[in-house]
Amino acid sequence: MSALRSKAPIPLETLEVAESMTRGVLIRFFEYVGGLWFLLRDTLRYSLTLRFRPREVLQQAYFLGVESWLIVALTAAFTGMVISLETVEQAVQYGFQDFIGGSVAFGTLRELGPMLAGGIVFAGRGGAAIAAQIGSMVVTEQVEALEAMGVSPVKALVVPRVIAAVMMVPLLTVFADIIGVYGGFIMAYWRVHLPPHVFWHSVQSTVVMGDFLKGLLKAAVFGLIVALVSSYEGLRTEGGAEGVGRATTKAVVVSIILIFVFNFFLSFVLFG
Amino acid sequence: MMQPQPATRSVTAAEPHVAVRLQEVSLRYGPKIVLERCSLECLTGQVTAVIGPSGAGKSTILRLVSGLRRPDAGHVFVDGEDITDSPERDLIEMRRQMGFAFQFAALFDSLTVAENVAFPLYEHTKLSKAEIDRKVIDTLSSLGLNDVESRLPAELSGGMQKRVGFARAIVNDPSIILFDEPTTGLDPIMTHVITNTILDIQNRLHATSIVVTHDLPFVFAVADYIALLFEGSIIESGTGRDLRQSPNPLVQQFLQGSALGPIPL
Predict the structure, then answer these.
(1) Phi/psi at A74 (nearest 5 deg)?
(2) Domain segments of chain A as ranges
(3) I need a surface site. Which of A26, A176, B105, B132 has the fewest CB within 10 A?
(4) What are the pLDDT digits (tens) for B45-100?
Protein backbone atom coordinates (compact mmCIF):
# COMPACT_ATOMS: atom_id res chain seq x y z
CA MET A 1 0.00 0.00 0.00
CA SER A 2 2.77 2.38 0.97
CA ALA A 3 4.65 1.41 -2.21
CA LEU A 4 1.57 2.23 -4.24
CA ARG A 5 1.30 5.59 -2.52
CA SER A 6 4.91 6.49 -3.11
CA LYS A 7 5.19 5.31 -6.70
CA ALA A 8 1.77 6.07 -8.21
CA PRO A 9 2.31 8.91 -10.72
CA ILE A 10 0.17 12.00 -10.30
CA PRO A 11 -2.10 12.27 -13.36
CA LEU A 12 -1.04 15.00 -15.77
CA GLU A 13 -4.54 16.52 -15.73
CA THR A 14 -4.36 16.92 -11.95
CA LEU A 15 -1.04 18.72 -12.23
CA GLU A 16 -2.41 20.99 -14.94
CA VAL A 17 -5.48 21.83 -12.87
CA ALA A 18 -3.31 22.51 -9.82
CA GLU A 19 -0.97 24.70 -11.85
CA SER A 20 -3.87 26.60 -13.39
CA MET A 21 -5.49 27.15 -9.98
CA THR A 22 -2.21 28.31 -8.46
CA ARG A 23 -1.64 30.69 -11.33
CA GLY A 24 -5.21 32.01 -10.98
CA VAL A 25 -4.78 32.62 -7.25
CA LEU A 26 -1.44 34.35 -7.78
CA ILE A 27 -2.83 36.55 -10.55
CA ARG A 28 -5.80 37.57 -8.38
CA PHE A 29 -3.48 38.25 -5.45
CA PHE A 30 -1.17 40.48 -7.45
CA GLU A 31 -4.14 42.21 -9.12
CA TYR A 32 -5.51 42.97 -5.66
CA VAL A 33 -2.22 44.22 -4.27
CA GLY A 34 -1.61 46.25 -7.43
CA GLY A 35 -5.09 47.77 -7.23
CA LEU A 36 -4.56 48.76 -3.61
CA TRP A 37 -1.17 50.22 -4.46
CA PHE A 38 -2.59 52.40 -7.26
CA LEU A 39 -5.42 53.53 -5.00
CA LEU A 40 -2.92 54.44 -2.28
CA ARG A 41 -0.79 56.33 -4.82
CA ASP A 42 -3.76 58.36 -6.12
CA THR A 43 -5.00 58.98 -2.58
CA LEU A 44 -1.60 60.32 -1.51
CA ARG A 45 -1.38 62.46 -4.65
CA TYR A 46 -4.73 64.15 -3.98
CA SER A 47 -4.10 64.41 -0.22
CA LEU A 48 -0.64 65.92 -0.44
CA THR A 49 -1.74 68.46 -3.05
CA LEU A 50 -4.69 69.37 -0.81
CA ARG A 51 -7.22 68.58 -3.52
CA PHE A 52 -10.11 67.55 -1.31
CA ARG A 53 -13.08 69.14 0.40
CA PRO A 54 -12.38 69.91 4.07
CA ARG A 55 -16.10 69.80 4.84
CA GLU A 56 -16.32 66.25 3.55
CA VAL A 57 -13.32 65.26 5.68
CA LEU A 58 -14.97 66.74 8.78
CA GLN A 59 -18.25 64.95 8.04
CA GLN A 60 -16.43 61.66 7.67
CA ALA A 61 -14.34 62.33 10.77
CA TYR A 62 -17.52 62.88 12.75
CA PHE A 63 -19.21 59.79 11.39
CA LEU A 64 -16.22 57.43 11.49
CA GLY A 65 -14.62 58.78 14.64
CA VAL A 66 -16.90 60.68 16.98
CA GLU A 67 -19.88 58.38 16.48
CA SER A 68 -17.67 55.37 17.34
CA TRP A 69 -16.90 56.55 20.87
CA LEU A 70 -19.44 54.37 22.66
CA ILE A 71 -18.45 51.10 21.02
CA VAL A 72 -14.76 51.92 21.59
CA ALA A 73 -15.47 52.78 25.23
CA LEU A 74 -17.36 49.56 25.85
CA THR A 75 -14.83 47.26 24.17
CA ALA A 76 -11.84 49.00 25.75
CA ALA A 77 -13.37 49.02 29.25
CA PHE A 78 -14.29 45.35 29.21
CA THR A 79 -10.96 44.32 27.67
CA GLY A 80 -8.99 46.27 30.28
CA MET A 81 -11.17 44.74 32.96
CA VAL A 82 -10.74 41.18 31.74
CA ILE A 83 -6.94 41.51 31.59
CA SER A 84 -6.96 42.80 35.12
CA LEU A 85 -9.44 40.15 36.25
CA GLU A 86 -7.28 37.32 34.98
CA THR A 87 -3.99 38.67 36.35
CA VAL A 88 -4.66 40.39 39.66
CA GLU A 89 -5.32 37.36 41.85
CA GLN A 90 -2.27 35.44 40.56
CA ALA A 91 -0.18 38.60 40.80
CA VAL A 92 -1.20 39.12 44.45
CA GLN A 93 -0.72 35.42 45.20
CA TYR A 94 2.87 35.54 43.95
CA GLY A 95 3.60 39.00 45.35
CA PHE A 96 3.64 40.85 42.02
CA GLN A 97 0.86 43.33 42.81
CA ASP A 98 3.26 46.19 42.15
CA PHE A 99 3.28 45.20 38.49
CA ILE A 100 -0.47 45.00 37.83
CA GLY A 101 -0.92 48.59 36.72
CA GLY A 102 2.18 48.44 34.54
CA SER A 103 1.19 45.23 32.80
CA VAL A 104 -2.33 46.48 32.08
CA ALA A 105 -1.04 49.83 30.76
CA PHE A 106 1.82 48.25 28.84
CA GLY A 107 -0.46 45.84 26.97
CA THR A 108 -3.16 48.43 26.42
CA LEU A 109 -0.97 51.22 25.07
CA ARG A 110 1.15 49.01 22.83
CA GLU A 111 -1.36 46.47 21.57
CA LEU A 112 -4.91 46.51 22.81
CA GLY A 113 -5.67 50.20 22.30
CA PRO A 114 -4.56 50.34 18.66
CA MET A 115 -5.90 46.87 17.87
CA LEU A 116 -9.28 47.48 19.46
CA ALA A 117 -9.88 51.02 18.26
CA GLY A 118 -8.08 50.74 14.92
CA GLY A 119 -8.57 47.10 14.23
CA ILE A 120 -11.65 45.38 15.44
CA VAL A 121 -13.94 48.32 16.11
CA PHE A 122 -12.94 50.56 13.22
CA ALA A 123 -12.84 47.72 10.68
CA GLY A 124 -16.21 46.44 11.88
CA ARG A 125 -17.98 49.76 12.04
CA GLY A 126 -16.08 52.25 9.90
CA GLY A 127 -14.77 49.82 7.29
CA ALA A 128 -18.15 48.22 6.77
CA ALA A 129 -19.77 51.65 6.45
CA ILE A 130 -17.20 52.88 3.94
CA ALA A 131 -17.53 49.79 1.73
CA ALA A 132 -21.33 49.83 1.92
CA GLN A 133 -21.58 53.58 1.17
CA ILE A 134 -19.23 53.52 -1.79
CA GLY A 135 -20.59 50.18 -3.02
CA SER A 136 -24.15 51.55 -2.96
CA MET A 137 -22.97 54.58 -4.88
CA VAL A 138 -21.42 52.30 -7.49
CA VAL A 139 -24.55 50.22 -8.03
CA THR A 140 -26.77 53.32 -8.20
CA GLU A 141 -24.46 54.92 -10.80
CA GLN A 142 -23.46 57.77 -8.46
CA VAL A 143 -19.79 56.94 -8.88
CA GLU A 144 -20.22 56.88 -12.65
CA ALA A 145 -21.99 60.25 -12.37
CA LEU A 146 -18.91 61.64 -10.62
CA GLU A 147 -16.69 60.35 -13.42
CA ALA A 148 -19.08 61.71 -16.04
CA MET A 149 -18.73 65.14 -14.42
CA GLY A 150 -14.97 64.92 -14.69
CA VAL A 151 -14.51 64.34 -10.96
CA SER A 152 -12.25 61.57 -9.74
CA PRO A 153 -14.06 59.18 -7.34
CA VAL A 154 -10.76 58.77 -5.51
CA LYS A 155 -10.63 62.50 -4.87
CA ALA A 156 -14.31 62.86 -3.98
CA LEU A 157 -14.88 59.65 -2.00
CA VAL A 158 -11.69 57.93 -0.98
CA VAL A 159 -9.47 60.84 0.08
CA PRO A 160 -11.89 62.32 2.68
CA ARG A 161 -12.46 58.89 4.23
CA VAL A 162 -8.76 58.01 4.35
CA ILE A 163 -7.80 61.37 5.88
CA ALA A 164 -10.63 61.10 8.41
CA ALA A 165 -9.59 57.56 9.33
CA VAL A 166 -5.91 58.45 9.75
CA MET A 167 -6.93 61.38 11.97
CA MET A 168 -9.63 59.73 14.03
CA VAL A 169 -8.33 56.22 14.70
CA PRO A 170 -5.38 57.53 16.78
CA LEU A 171 -7.83 59.74 18.71
CA LEU A 172 -10.08 56.75 19.31
CA THR A 173 -6.99 54.88 20.43
CA VAL A 174 -6.17 57.56 23.03
CA PHE A 175 -9.72 57.16 24.26
CA ALA A 176 -9.40 53.35 24.27
CA ASP A 177 -6.07 53.58 26.13
CA ILE A 178 -7.55 55.72 28.91
CA ILE A 179 -10.73 53.67 29.27
CA GLY A 180 -8.83 50.37 29.08
CA VAL A 181 -6.34 51.31 31.80
CA TYR A 182 -9.11 52.70 34.00
CA GLY A 183 -11.08 49.49 33.47
CA GLY A 184 -8.06 47.54 34.64
CA PHE A 185 -7.71 49.77 37.66
CA ILE A 186 -11.37 49.38 38.65
CA MET A 187 -11.15 45.60 38.41
CA ALA A 188 -7.90 45.49 40.43
CA TYR A 189 -9.44 47.67 43.12
CA TRP A 190 -12.66 45.65 43.20
CA ARG A 191 -11.09 42.17 43.20
CA VAL A 192 -8.05 42.57 45.45
CA HIS A 193 -8.49 46.10 46.85
CA LEU A 194 -5.24 47.17 45.23
CA PRO A 195 -4.49 50.69 46.51
CA PRO A 196 -4.80 53.29 43.74
CA HIS A 197 -1.34 54.72 44.34
CA VAL A 198 0.21 51.24 43.84
CA PHE A 199 -1.61 50.79 40.54
CA TRP A 200 -0.78 54.24 39.16
CA HIS A 201 2.78 54.16 40.38
CA SER A 202 3.22 50.88 38.53
CA VAL A 203 1.76 52.48 35.39
CA GLN A 204 4.12 55.46 35.63
CA SER A 205 7.21 53.38 36.24
CA THR A 206 6.52 50.83 33.50
CA VAL A 207 5.29 52.66 30.42
CA VAL A 208 7.08 55.49 28.65
CA MET A 209 5.83 58.11 26.23
CA GLY A 210 7.30 56.09 23.36
CA ASP A 211 4.91 53.20 24.06
CA PHE A 212 1.98 55.58 23.82
CA LEU A 213 3.20 57.36 20.67
CA LYS A 214 4.17 54.18 18.87
CA GLY A 215 0.74 52.79 19.67
CA LEU A 216 -0.78 55.86 18.03
CA LEU A 217 1.42 55.38 14.99
CA LYS A 218 0.16 51.82 14.69
CA ALA A 219 -3.40 53.11 15.02
CA ALA A 220 -2.87 55.59 12.18
CA VAL A 221 -1.54 52.79 9.96
CA PHE A 222 -4.54 50.61 10.84
CA GLY A 223 -6.88 53.48 10.01
CA LEU A 224 -5.19 53.88 6.65
CA ILE A 225 -5.45 50.14 5.94
CA VAL A 226 -9.15 49.93 6.85
CA ALA A 227 -10.15 53.06 4.91
CA LEU A 228 -8.12 52.10 1.87
CA VAL A 229 -9.21 48.45 1.71
CA SER A 230 -12.85 49.34 2.36
CA SER A 231 -12.84 52.07 -0.29
CA TYR A 232 -11.21 49.67 -2.74
CA GLU A 233 -13.80 47.00 -2.08
CA GLY A 234 -16.57 49.56 -2.40
CA LEU A 235 -15.29 50.82 -5.74
CA ARG A 236 -15.04 47.22 -7.03
CA THR A 237 -18.65 46.44 -6.15
CA GLU A 238 -20.66 44.64 -8.80
CA GLY A 239 -24.15 43.21 -8.91
CA GLY A 240 -26.61 45.23 -6.86
CA ALA A 241 -27.51 44.69 -3.22
CA GLU A 242 -25.86 41.27 -3.10
CA GLY A 243 -22.66 42.81 -4.43
CA VAL A 244 -22.75 45.53 -1.78
CA GLY A 245 -23.11 42.85 0.91
CA ARG A 246 -20.21 40.88 -0.54
CA ALA A 247 -18.01 43.98 -0.76
CA THR A 248 -18.81 44.94 2.82
CA THR A 249 -17.99 41.50 4.19
CA LYS A 250 -14.78 41.31 2.20
CA ALA A 251 -13.74 44.79 3.31
CA VAL A 252 -14.04 43.84 6.99
CA VAL A 253 -12.38 40.44 6.59
CA VAL A 254 -9.43 41.70 4.51
CA SER A 255 -8.97 44.74 6.78
CA ILE A 256 -8.82 42.63 9.93
CA ILE A 257 -6.39 40.14 8.38
CA LEU A 258 -4.13 42.93 7.16
CA ILE A 259 -4.27 44.64 10.55
CA PHE A 260 -3.08 41.50 12.30
CA VAL A 261 -0.29 41.03 9.75
CA PHE A 262 0.82 44.67 9.90
CA ASN A 263 0.52 44.68 13.70
CA PHE A 264 3.09 41.91 13.90
CA PHE A 265 5.56 43.67 11.63
CA LEU A 266 4.99 47.08 13.19
CA SER A 267 5.48 45.66 16.69
CA PHE A 268 8.60 43.92 15.48
CA VAL A 269 10.00 47.15 14.03
CA LEU A 270 8.81 49.55 16.75
CA PHE A 271 9.20 47.47 19.89
CA GLY A 272 11.35 44.53 18.83
CA MET B 1 -31.36 37.08 -40.44
CA MET B 2 -30.79 40.38 -42.24
CA GLN B 3 -27.27 41.65 -42.56
CA PRO B 4 -26.81 44.95 -40.69
CA GLN B 5 -26.55 47.93 -42.99
CA PRO B 6 -24.13 50.80 -42.36
CA ALA B 7 -25.45 54.12 -41.09
CA THR B 8 -26.99 56.17 -43.90
CA ARG B 9 -25.11 59.41 -43.28
CA SER B 10 -21.45 59.39 -44.16
CA VAL B 11 -19.61 62.35 -42.70
CA THR B 12 -15.92 62.24 -41.86
CA ALA B 13 -14.56 63.10 -38.44
CA ALA B 14 -12.71 66.08 -39.84
CA GLU B 15 -15.94 67.84 -40.81
CA PRO B 16 -16.65 70.46 -38.17
CA HIS B 17 -20.37 69.92 -37.92
CA VAL B 18 -19.96 66.36 -36.67
CA ALA B 19 -19.77 66.69 -32.90
CA VAL B 20 -19.58 62.99 -32.09
CA ARG B 21 -18.56 60.11 -34.26
CA LEU B 22 -18.24 56.42 -33.54
CA GLN B 23 -16.21 54.67 -36.19
CA GLU B 24 -16.48 50.89 -36.46
CA VAL B 25 -16.54 50.54 -32.69
CA SER B 26 -16.56 47.10 -31.13
CA LEU B 27 -16.96 46.31 -27.44
CA ARG B 28 -17.64 43.20 -25.44
CA TYR B 29 -18.32 42.57 -21.76
CA GLY B 30 -16.74 39.20 -21.06
CA PRO B 31 -18.15 36.76 -23.59
CA LYS B 32 -21.04 39.07 -24.54
CA ILE B 33 -20.60 41.14 -27.67
CA VAL B 34 -22.25 44.51 -27.01
CA LEU B 35 -21.19 46.53 -30.03
CA GLU B 36 -19.70 45.21 -33.24
CA ARG B 37 -18.30 47.56 -35.88
CA CYS B 38 -20.84 50.15 -34.81
CA SER B 39 -20.72 53.51 -36.58
CA LEU B 40 -22.71 56.60 -35.65
CA GLU B 41 -22.51 60.31 -36.29
CA CYS B 42 -24.17 63.08 -34.29
CA LEU B 43 -24.35 66.55 -35.78
CA THR B 44 -23.51 69.67 -33.82
CA GLY B 45 -26.51 71.35 -32.24
CA GLN B 46 -28.88 68.53 -33.17
CA VAL B 47 -30.67 65.89 -31.14
CA THR B 48 -29.70 62.39 -32.16
CA ALA B 49 -31.72 59.56 -30.67
CA VAL B 50 -30.36 56.04 -30.46
CA ILE B 51 -33.20 53.57 -30.26
CA GLY B 52 -33.21 49.82 -30.07
CA PRO B 53 -34.37 46.85 -28.04
CA SER B 54 -33.49 46.58 -24.35
CA GLY B 55 -29.97 45.33 -23.81
CA ALA B 56 -28.90 46.30 -27.33
CA GLY B 57 -26.00 48.43 -26.04
CA LYS B 58 -27.59 51.87 -26.32
CA SER B 59 -26.36 53.10 -22.94
CA THR B 60 -22.93 51.74 -23.75
CA ILE B 61 -22.75 54.22 -26.64
CA LEU B 62 -23.17 57.09 -24.17
CA ARG B 63 -20.42 55.66 -21.98
CA LEU B 64 -18.12 55.42 -24.99
CA VAL B 65 -18.84 59.01 -26.00
CA SER B 66 -18.11 60.24 -22.48
CA GLY B 67 -14.95 58.15 -22.26
CA LEU B 68 -16.28 56.14 -19.32
CA ARG B 69 -15.66 53.00 -21.41
CA ARG B 70 -13.04 52.44 -24.03
CA PRO B 71 -13.79 50.40 -27.14
CA ASP B 72 -12.01 47.13 -27.84
CA ALA B 73 -11.68 48.23 -31.46
CA GLY B 74 -12.61 51.23 -33.58
CA HIS B 75 -12.45 54.94 -32.79
CA VAL B 76 -14.52 57.51 -30.93
CA PHE B 77 -14.28 61.15 -32.04
CA VAL B 78 -15.59 64.06 -29.99
CA ASP B 79 -15.43 67.49 -31.60
CA GLY B 80 -13.07 66.05 -34.20
CA GLU B 81 -10.63 64.64 -31.65
CA ASP B 82 -9.99 60.95 -31.39
CA ILE B 83 -10.53 60.17 -27.70
CA THR B 84 -10.15 56.41 -28.08
CA ASP B 85 -6.75 56.26 -26.43
CA SER B 86 -6.75 59.64 -24.69
CA PRO B 87 -5.22 59.65 -21.22
CA GLU B 88 -7.67 59.84 -18.33
CA ARG B 89 -6.55 63.41 -17.59
CA ASP B 90 -7.69 64.55 -21.04
CA LEU B 91 -10.95 62.64 -20.72
CA ILE B 92 -11.69 64.33 -17.40
CA GLU B 93 -11.12 67.69 -19.10
CA MET B 94 -13.41 66.68 -21.98
CA ARG B 95 -16.16 65.51 -19.63
CA ARG B 96 -16.32 68.96 -18.10
CA GLN B 97 -17.81 70.13 -21.40
CA MET B 98 -20.42 67.38 -21.30
CA GLY B 99 -23.59 66.82 -19.35
CA PHE B 100 -24.72 63.29 -18.58
CA ALA B 101 -28.30 62.71 -17.43
CA PHE B 102 -28.51 59.19 -16.07
CA GLN B 103 -31.43 56.79 -16.40
CA PHE B 104 -32.14 56.80 -12.66
CA ALA B 105 -30.81 60.35 -12.17
CA ALA B 106 -27.84 59.07 -10.10
CA LEU B 107 -28.21 61.97 -7.68
CA PHE B 108 -25.89 61.95 -4.69
CA ASP B 109 -28.28 60.79 -2.01
CA SER B 110 -26.37 62.41 0.87
CA LEU B 111 -26.55 65.86 -0.74
CA THR B 112 -29.52 68.18 -1.11
CA VAL B 113 -30.96 69.07 -4.50
CA ALA B 114 -29.08 72.37 -4.50
CA GLU B 115 -25.81 70.69 -3.52
CA ASN B 116 -26.27 68.11 -6.27
CA VAL B 117 -26.81 70.73 -8.93
CA ALA B 118 -24.01 72.93 -7.61
CA PHE B 119 -21.55 70.05 -7.51
CA PRO B 120 -20.03 70.53 -11.00
CA LEU B 121 -19.82 74.28 -10.46
CA TYR B 122 -17.87 73.89 -7.23
CA GLU B 123 -15.59 71.37 -8.90
CA HIS B 124 -14.89 73.11 -12.18
CA THR B 125 -15.48 76.83 -11.81
CA LYS B 126 -14.20 79.64 -9.65
CA LEU B 127 -17.63 81.20 -9.17
CA SER B 128 -18.44 82.64 -5.78
CA LYS B 129 -20.97 80.89 -3.55
CA ALA B 130 -23.53 83.60 -4.28
CA GLU B 131 -23.06 83.18 -8.02
CA ILE B 132 -23.33 79.41 -7.74
CA ASP B 133 -26.48 79.68 -5.62
CA ARG B 134 -28.05 82.01 -8.17
CA LYS B 135 -27.12 79.75 -11.08
CA VAL B 136 -28.49 76.70 -9.28
CA ILE B 137 -31.81 78.39 -8.55
CA ASP B 138 -32.07 79.72 -12.12
CA THR B 139 -31.35 76.29 -13.59
CA LEU B 140 -33.81 74.53 -11.30
CA SER B 141 -36.58 77.03 -11.96
CA SER B 142 -35.96 76.82 -15.73
CA LEU B 143 -36.87 73.14 -15.40
CA GLY B 144 -39.97 73.88 -13.35
CA LEU B 145 -38.37 72.97 -10.03
CA ASN B 146 -39.11 75.58 -7.39
CA ASP B 147 -38.61 75.39 -3.63
CA VAL B 148 -36.91 72.01 -3.76
CA GLU B 149 -33.34 73.21 -3.16
CA SER B 150 -33.10 71.99 0.41
CA ARG B 151 -34.79 68.64 -0.16
CA LEU B 152 -32.93 65.36 -0.38
CA PRO B 153 -33.28 63.24 -3.55
CA ALA B 154 -35.18 60.55 -1.65
CA GLU B 155 -37.91 63.12 -0.91
CA LEU B 156 -38.60 63.72 -4.63
CA SER B 157 -40.76 61.85 -7.14
CA GLY B 158 -39.12 59.95 -9.99
CA GLY B 159 -39.93 62.70 -12.48
CA MET B 160 -38.53 65.40 -10.22
CA GLN B 161 -35.36 63.37 -9.66
CA LYS B 162 -34.93 63.11 -13.43
CA ARG B 163 -35.30 66.85 -13.81
CA VAL B 164 -32.82 67.50 -11.01
CA GLY B 165 -30.48 65.14 -12.87
CA PHE B 166 -31.03 67.24 -16.01
CA ALA B 167 -30.34 70.40 -14.02
CA ARG B 168 -27.04 68.96 -12.79
CA ALA B 169 -26.18 67.91 -16.36
CA ILE B 170 -26.82 71.35 -17.88
CA VAL B 171 -25.79 73.72 -15.10
CA ASN B 172 -22.30 73.98 -16.61
CA ASP B 173 -23.73 74.97 -20.03
CA PRO B 174 -22.24 71.90 -21.72
CA SER B 175 -21.78 71.67 -25.46
CA ILE B 176 -22.77 67.98 -25.52
CA ILE B 177 -25.57 66.51 -23.42
CA LEU B 178 -26.14 62.77 -23.05
CA PHE B 179 -29.59 61.55 -21.95
CA ASP B 180 -29.87 57.93 -20.87
CA GLU B 181 -33.47 56.66 -21.02
CA PRO B 182 -34.96 59.97 -19.87
CA THR B 183 -38.59 58.84 -19.90
CA THR B 184 -38.31 55.23 -18.79
CA GLY B 185 -40.56 54.41 -15.87
CA LEU B 186 -42.48 57.69 -15.97
CA ASP B 187 -46.21 58.17 -16.34
CA PRO B 188 -47.53 59.82 -19.56
CA ILE B 189 -47.88 63.24 -17.95
CA MET B 190 -44.33 63.22 -16.63
CA THR B 191 -43.11 61.87 -19.98
CA HIS B 192 -44.75 64.91 -21.60
CA VAL B 193 -43.07 67.20 -19.07
CA ILE B 194 -39.66 65.60 -19.71
CA THR B 195 -40.16 65.85 -23.48
CA ASN B 196 -40.87 69.56 -23.21
CA THR B 197 -37.96 69.97 -20.81
CA ILE B 198 -35.51 68.43 -23.28
CA LEU B 199 -36.89 70.54 -26.14
CA ASP B 200 -36.59 73.62 -23.97
CA ILE B 201 -33.00 72.77 -23.00
CA GLN B 202 -32.19 72.26 -26.66
CA ASN B 203 -33.72 75.59 -27.64
CA ARG B 204 -31.81 77.45 -24.95
CA LEU B 205 -28.41 75.77 -25.11
CA HIS B 206 -28.25 74.64 -28.76
CA ALA B 207 -26.14 71.78 -27.52
CA THR B 208 -25.46 68.52 -29.29
CA SER B 209 -27.72 66.02 -27.57
CA ILE B 210 -27.65 62.25 -27.74
CA VAL B 211 -30.72 60.56 -26.36
CA VAL B 212 -30.85 56.84 -25.72
CA THR B 213 -34.32 55.40 -25.38
CA HIS B 214 -36.90 52.98 -26.68
CA ASP B 215 -39.81 55.35 -26.12
CA LEU B 216 -40.87 55.98 -29.72
CA PRO B 217 -43.42 58.82 -29.30
CA PHE B 218 -40.81 60.67 -27.24
CA VAL B 219 -38.14 60.03 -29.89
CA PHE B 220 -40.25 61.39 -32.72
CA ALA B 221 -41.06 64.44 -30.60
CA VAL B 222 -37.51 65.44 -29.73
CA ALA B 223 -35.05 63.91 -32.19
CA ASP B 224 -33.65 65.52 -35.32
CA TYR B 225 -31.99 62.25 -36.26
CA ILE B 226 -32.71 58.72 -35.19
CA ALA B 227 -30.40 55.71 -35.29
CA LEU B 228 -31.63 52.18 -34.73
CA LEU B 229 -29.21 49.91 -32.89
CA PHE B 230 -29.66 46.20 -33.36
CA GLU B 231 -27.29 43.38 -32.43
CA GLY B 232 -24.41 45.75 -31.79
CA SER B 233 -24.63 47.82 -34.96
CA ILE B 234 -26.56 50.82 -36.24
CA ILE B 235 -28.72 49.27 -38.92
CA GLU B 236 -30.57 52.42 -39.98
CA SER B 237 -30.31 56.13 -39.34
CA GLY B 238 -31.88 59.30 -40.61
CA THR B 239 -34.71 61.66 -39.81
CA GLY B 240 -37.95 60.39 -38.34
CA ARG B 241 -39.48 60.45 -41.80
CA ASP B 242 -36.55 58.45 -43.22
CA LEU B 243 -37.06 55.75 -40.64
CA ARG B 244 -40.81 55.62 -41.09
CA GLN B 245 -40.31 55.15 -44.83
CA SER B 246 -37.49 52.64 -44.45
CA PRO B 247 -38.08 49.37 -46.31
CA ASN B 248 -35.93 47.56 -43.73
CA PRO B 249 -38.22 45.00 -42.02
CA LEU B 250 -36.21 45.27 -38.80
CA VAL B 251 -36.94 49.00 -38.65
CA GLN B 252 -40.60 48.53 -39.44
CA GLN B 253 -41.00 45.80 -36.86
CA PHE B 254 -39.37 47.93 -34.17
CA LEU B 255 -41.36 51.07 -35.05
CA GLN B 256 -44.64 49.14 -35.10
CA GLY B 257 -43.79 47.23 -31.94
CA SER B 258 -44.81 44.03 -33.62
CA ALA B 259 -43.95 40.62 -32.23
CA LEU B 260 -43.87 39.27 -35.78
CA GLY B 261 -40.75 39.92 -37.79
CA PRO B 262 -37.02 39.34 -37.96
CA ILE B 263 -36.29 40.71 -34.46
CA PRO B 264 -36.23 37.70 -32.13
CA LEU B 265 -38.28 37.99 -28.93
Answers:
(1) -65, -50
(2) 53-271
(3) A26
(4) 999 999 988 888 899 999 999 999 999 999 999 998 999 999 988 898 899 889 99
